[in-house]
Amino acid sequence: MSDLGAILDRIGAEMAAAPDRGRVADYIPELARISDCHFAMAVCTADGQTFTTGEADTPFSIQSVSKVFTLAIALGRLGDQLWTRVGREPSGLAFNSMVQLEYERGIPRNPFINAGAIVVTDAILAGHKPRELLGEILRFLREAAGEDDIHINKAVAASEQATGHRNLALAHFMAAHGNLLHAPELTCGTYFHQCAIEMSARQLALAGRFLIGAPDLPRMLAPGRTRRINALMMTCGHYDGSGEFAYRVGLPGKSGVGGGILVVAPGRASIAVWSPGLNTQGNSQLGTLAVERLARATGWSVFG
Ligand code: GLN
């Protein structure tokens, strides 16, 4: 699509003028320092082209977008066994909610809420030291993106570690139900570091290409499994905002509180957007609006 560059530039200009940019996450002190003025968008198409607008080479904290990649590693390594420890239903609750865990006996609703992602990290930590697993996650991302310059921001990880009582509480609660293999501090420490990975929008769009399902792109996982990841992104990728995202955008997406969203247009493109201001569900306010406009301009939708 030759006018994709023009579409992105137009969206970039519209977002620069947007009146409501949402609110930057402030419960992780290092993230609270980020300005809400940033904006970037990148699109990698199935035929190998990349289009960008805005600060597409500025690294940002991918936070919960990392959950897509740890899920991919977990499905590659454990297969369907993973589903004995975490469900596949949307939660309809905030990303850090505790309530369901109590009456569902420590089994989180899905791998994209915090409790579910902590279980996924715990599962792939088996037989590894945290450092080794984090190395594997970075290797996966670097291979998927075809870029080596992807790292963990230690200050962000430390900041989350210092304030991560809620995630530790989730981990302890799951441990009490026998759904954690490692000490809560060890699993959460690994999870905090995975969330503190920094990537640019361009790198994130490149890393998401394996979910497009097109030939000639990096193949990190069997096609049946990538389809499943897309299904979970569609139903659970935006927490209690997943229905709204599906309605407005019509494509699978996974957000993070750093303001990034990875979106997949199956068979067509991988899209990454970054704008740090969040809506009330903790999803990027302008990021959502930007991909909504992109989907409208291109006609991309999984709903026909
Ligand atoms: N690291 C963040 C947390 O655990 C990730 C949450 C998110 O991006 N929604 O709170």
UniProtKB/TrEMBL annotation:
Catalytic activity of the protein: L-glutamine + H2O = L-glutamate + NH4(+)
Assigned protein family: Belongs to the glutaminase family.
EC numbers for this chain: 3.5.1.2
Assembly mode: Homotetramer.
Chain positions recorded as substrate binding sites: S64, N114, E160, N167, Y191, Y239, V257
Species this protein is from: Gemmobacter nanjingensis
Signal peptide coordinates: none
Upper classification of the organism: Bacteria, Pseudomonadati, Pseudomonadota, Alphaproteobacteria, Rhodobacterales
Pfam families in UniProt: Glutaminase (PF04960)
Keyword list, A-Z: Acetylation, Hydrolase
Official protein name in the record: Glutaminase
Annotated HAMAP family: Glutaminase
PANTHER family (alphabetical): GLUTAMINASE
